[in-house]
Amino acid sequence: MNKSIEKNKLIEKLKTMDEVILFLIITFGFIFVLTLISWFETMNGMKISIGNVQMYTPAMAVILVAKIKNKVSEYPKRMFNLYLTFGFVIILSYIINLFFDFGVNGIVSILTLVFSLAFIPIVLTENKEKMSKWKLRGTNVKNILLCALLYIFLLQIAGIGSYVVAGKFEELKKYLSTLNFSDFLCMIGNGIVAMTGYVMMFGEEYGWRGFLQPRLQNKFGKRIGVILLGVIWGLWHVNMYFFVVKPEYLLYSTVKQVIACVYMAIVFAYVYEKSRSIWGVVLLHALNNGMAFYMLDQYSDSLEDKIAIMYQGEFKLLIPMLVVYIIISIPFLFTKMFRKNSAKL
């Protein structure tokens, strides 16, 4: 009897809890569980990549918040239930792998491709009114493509700018001499190929851009809200490299990730408004990840080595990166969608 009363009290408390707080508790609760899985498997010499499953969790948290808040009649039920079910299947796969090492990374890659294909007809045939209400419909294809080209351009500008600010002109000269149109197309192609697993990028983007961003901006203002989102997003990544980088680089890697995520949050917020579509930022996320890993492929085939290359270094190396990101971000922060009177995202 007492247990039933306590359970009902907990349910009522969750129902009345602020949506943002509830979302963050669920999201970082998932992270805690995944970190434990990663730690156990690392201790047992297993090589897994929790990043692939972690990307699903922000959208899963949004769906759970909707269910807890009794918004079942308001949301696209088939789409949300399918996504939540598949997310839990992926997490369960990693848990089972603790006891039967069956090469979960490969299995999850296949499952993700299957899910990506199965998800398309569900998205296309869902209730249009509910999809619009939950920011899942409405798009401007022309603006999406223009924003994608802009982001590809900014990636190159950021890279070149970091060399310039650091005064590494010889290294810049060497870098520019290695650039060729063929490699550039391969980088873009790698980003497009990453879209085959778009359900993973959707997981992050729907959680961060579709749900958390407008709520933080309503609470703290357009600019502070999106910067705060970037900080939260950056900290959310910490456990992905917790067992890969050397302990002395954990603070460095965390600061670097937060800087990068604040910058990306600003640019992605602009694209989200400009394209009027969650799918626009899903494309950008795929391009970003695909192009980044293509460049890292030049150094190693191992995911662990790639993460170590990205997140091990000296703090002074972050200064050029920070300066360049600030210079690029300022024009975006002064566009109309970051003004107080701009339309809500």
Describe the protein.
By secondary structure, the protein is mainly alpha-helical. It has two domains: 1-136, no CATH class; 138-345, no CATH class. Helices cover 76% and strands 0% of the residues. The chain contains 16 helices and no strands. It has helices at residues 2-16, 19-43, 51-54, 57-68, 77-97, 104-125, 128-133, 141-166, 169-178, 181-193, 198-220, 222-236, 250-275, 278-296, 303-311, 318-333. The radius of gyration is 21 Å and the shape is globular. The N and C termini lie far apart (45 Å).
What is the CA-atom radius of gyration, in angstroms? 21 Å
Number of helices: 16
Q: What's the helical proportion of residues?
A: over 70%
Q: Calculate the mean pLDDT score and round it.
A: 85
Topology order in helix (H) and strand (E) letters:
HHHHHHHHHHHHHHHH
In what range is the share of β-strand residues? Answer: under 5%
Q: Cα distance, first to last residue?
A: 45 Å
Shape: globular
Biggest beta sheet summary: none
Q: How many individual domains? A: 2
Secondary-structure content class: mainly alpha
**Number of extended strands:** 0
Poorly predicted runs? none
